[in-house]
Amino acid sequence: MLPRGSIGGAGLIRSIQFEKIGTAPTLPGFSLTASGVAGDQSLLFLFEFSDGGASTATALRASGVLPHPKMGRLKRYRLLKSNAGSELWIDLPPLELHASKIDLFPDGRVLLASSRWNFQVETDYNLNGIIFDPQTGQASRVGLGDGISDLQIDQRGRIWVGYFDEGVFGSSVGQAGLVCFSDLGEKVWEFPADADHTIDDCYALNVTGADAAIFFYSDFPICKIGADFQLSWWQTELQGCHAFAMSATEILFSSQYQESSETAHIGQLDREGVLYTKRARLLMPDGSGRPPGRLHGRGNHLYHFGEDGIYRATVV
Predict the structure, then answer these.
(1) Buried b or exposed e, range 83-122, using 16+ CB within 10 angstroms
(2) What are the backbone dihedrals phi and psi of residue 128, each rounded to the nearest 5 degrees, phi first?
(3) Which of 53, 98, 298, 299 has its CA 20 to 30 A from that of 44?
(4) Which helix (H) or strand (E) holds 165?
């Protein structure tokens, strides 16, 4: 029997090398709380003011408990947008939201969201997102549902949100597994219940242009959702990948369950139906294997966020 995710054996098809595109930023008096990549490939870094002691959210995470989005005290945030050497700092109003997800709208507005919602406040328990306009200083709350695994904004300003299992099985908002919201936070589409597969846990989301693509448990297909919500499918032989980069013809997955951080899988999108992949190795610029760190897929780029910098690999 062939190893899962291979054709004709377990040998490498090729090595894929990251390029360093930036250093890990710091801000005196603040701690980095979230990072991401915007639709224009700008790097996003959200900093939270540090008061010298562990926040309630930090204490909860350390104990293995997921924090509620509203932590009972106001927080000061600063957002850094970095692109091709230019930097833009955005000061946000004091918020009681524990923000773990960030992205930018095409018009420059900022979206912050907590992956969880608050079960304790009946009047706004589901309003776990904030849309902030730096030009006007106006902020509005939106409800994006519980159990957010990832969110990304497309070029039309629509918010795509994927949900992990607690959001799918415990939230009416995210029970479809993938939801598309307007730029005002109104639900405009959700993954159809009569689709070929159902989403139990959205492992990876990648939004580029006006399209979205997802990789999800339990069958682990790739589904591409077109600008007008038409679905295209590729069945894979992979399991457990949490990030992928995707071009018009090629797709690069992160490692599967129990694989090393330098392992990847790459395949050609040359025929619809089944996507065959081969194993690849992710290398750093010095030729060493990729160390542990967070991977993020956006368009045809796979980003590595590490303590020493930010790196990018590209498929064509």
Answers:
(1) eeeeeeebebeebebbbbbbbbbeeebbbbbbbbbbeeee
(2) -100, 20
(3) 53
(4) helix 165-170
Compute φ and ψ for 38, nearest 5 degrees: -80, 175
Number of H helices, E strands in the chain: 2, 28
Cβ-based neighbours of 106, under 8 Å, separated by 6 or more: 39, 153, 155, 156, 157
Over the stretch 83-123, which tens digit does the pLDDT of each residue have? 988 999 999 999 988 899 999 999 999 999 999 986 554 55
Residues of the chain with pLDDT under 50: 1-10, 52-68, 121
Quote the CA–CA distance of 310 and 297 in Å, as a whole number: 13
Q: What is the DSSP string of 210-238?
A: TEEEEEEETT-EEEEE-TT--EEEEE-S-
Q: Please state, in angstroms and rounded to a whole number, the distance separating the CA atoms of residues 16 and 313.
A: 7
Whole-angstrom CA distances from 275 to 129, 221, 268 are 35, 9, 7
pLDDT digits (tens, 9 = 90+) for 172-202: 899 999 999 999 999 999 999 999 999 999 9
Confirm if 155 and 298 have CB atoms less than 8 A apart: no
Label residue 236 exposed, middle or buried (CB < 10 Å: 0-12, 13-18, 19+). buried
CA distance 297 to 304: 9
Contact between 17 and 283 (Cβ < 8 Å): yes
The sign of the dihedral angle between the CA atoms of 297, 64, 172, 125 is: negative
Q: In whole angstroms, what is the distance from residue 129 CA to residue 115 CA?
A: 9
Predicted TM-score (pTM) of this structure: 0.90
Q: What strands lie across the sheet with 201-208, from one edge to the other?
A: 201-208, 211-217, 221-225, 231-235, 273-274
